[in-house]
């Protein structure tokens, strides 16, 4: 259920040569977007901090340059369209290629994320690797819960968004099962259901990307660098999905 939030920030006004501090109360209504939230945080003492954690598709593998990854395209959108006045804003990428959330928990990457004290964290579920390493769906769900617990215990005010990975050709349409007799789509469906049951915000990247490709008559293989990781075209479509979601009302 969406809640109305109040954000108080102090701005310094120059008037007749003297500094006057003024407090302005901003009410976040049900129409406040995620972009609005980031902008409001940019006025705080430490500015707005946005982070992502997950696997190689959160890292941007497959793009010809990091600037063409969905994460950097999203940062560019925030900086150029929503924060033209150079307010404090930082984007941090804690994703690692070939890693599951369990691995990111074990190697201390989640701890590093927590120490950065982000205002908004996007957690890409990394189920491509959960599938390929034959991790059980239960273990995958437990890793999701542990990641949320660590973030919330350390920084309770941090907002969390989960997102799925993208469509692939190598793991397409559930035709290839792993040693646990699960398809890539089994992991996608199970984790989506688990996250929604816990009432954590979830962005389905997979289906909206597939729909955008179909609507534009773009072949899936033309959006991928190697059958799994998006290329520049694929990441731009991913960004379009994110951009649409970030223009919607805040989900918390």
In DSSP terms (H or I, runs of 4 or more residues), the helix count works out at 10
Q: Beta-strand percentage? A: 15-25%
The overall strand count is: 7
Mean pLDDT over all positions: 88
Neighbour order of strands in the largest sheet? 4-3-5-6-7
Enumerate the spans where pLDDT stays under 50 for 5 or more consecutive residues.
1-26
- Overall morphology: globular
Spatial separation of the terminal alpha carbons? 7 Å
Helix content: 40-55%
The biggest sheet, with number of strands, parallel, antiparallel or mixed sense and barrel status, is: 5 strands, parallel
Radius of gyration: 19 Å
Would you tell me the structural class of the helices and strands? alpha/beta
Spell out the helices and strands N to C. Answer: EEHEHHEHHEHHEHEHH
Structure characterization notes:
- By secondary structure, the chain is an alpha/beta fold.
- It has ten helices and seven strands.
- It has helices spanning 34-41, 56-59, 70-82, 101-106, 109-115, 127-132, 137-154, 184-197, 206-215, 232-246, and strands at 5-15, 18-28, 48-53, 89-93, 120-124, 159-163, 202-203.
- A hairpin with a 2-residue loop joins strand 1 and strand 2.
- The longest helix is centred in the middle third of the chain and has 18 residues, at 137-154.
- The chain is globular, with a radius of gyration of 19 Å.
- Mean pLDDT is 88; it is low at 1-26.
């Amino acid at each position: 259920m969406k809640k109305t939030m109040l954000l108080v920030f102090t701005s310094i006004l120059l008037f007749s040569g003297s500094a006057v501090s003024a407090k302005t109360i901003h009410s976040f209504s049900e129409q406040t977007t995620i972009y609005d939230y980031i902008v409001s945080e940019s006025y705080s003492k430490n500015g707005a901090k946005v982070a992502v954690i997950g696997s190689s598709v959160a890292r941007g593998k497959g793009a010809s340059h990091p600037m063409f990854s969905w994460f950097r395209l999203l940062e560019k959108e925030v900086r150029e369209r929503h924060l033209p006045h150079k307010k404090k804003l930082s984007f941090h990428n804690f994703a690692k290629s070939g890693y599951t959330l369990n691995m990111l928990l074990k190697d201390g990457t989640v701890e590093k994320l927590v120490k950065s004290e982000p205002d908004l964290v996007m957690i890409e579920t990394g189920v491509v690797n959960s599938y390929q390493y034959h991790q059980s769906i239960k273990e995958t769900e437990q890793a999701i819960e542990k990641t949320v617990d660590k973030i919330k215990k350390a920084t309770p005010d941090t907002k969390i968004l989960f997102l799925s990975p993208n469509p692939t050709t190598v793991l397409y349409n559930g035709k290839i099962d792993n040693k646990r007799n699960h398809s890539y789509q089994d992991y996608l469906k199970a984790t989506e259901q688990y996250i929604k049951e816990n009432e954590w915000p979830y962005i389905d990247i997979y289906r909206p990307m597939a729909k955008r490709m179909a609507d534009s008559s773009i072949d899936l293989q033309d959006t991928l660098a190697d059958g799994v990781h998006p290329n520049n075209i694929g990441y731009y479509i991913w960004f379009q999905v994110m951009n649409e979601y970030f223009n919607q009302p805040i989900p918390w």
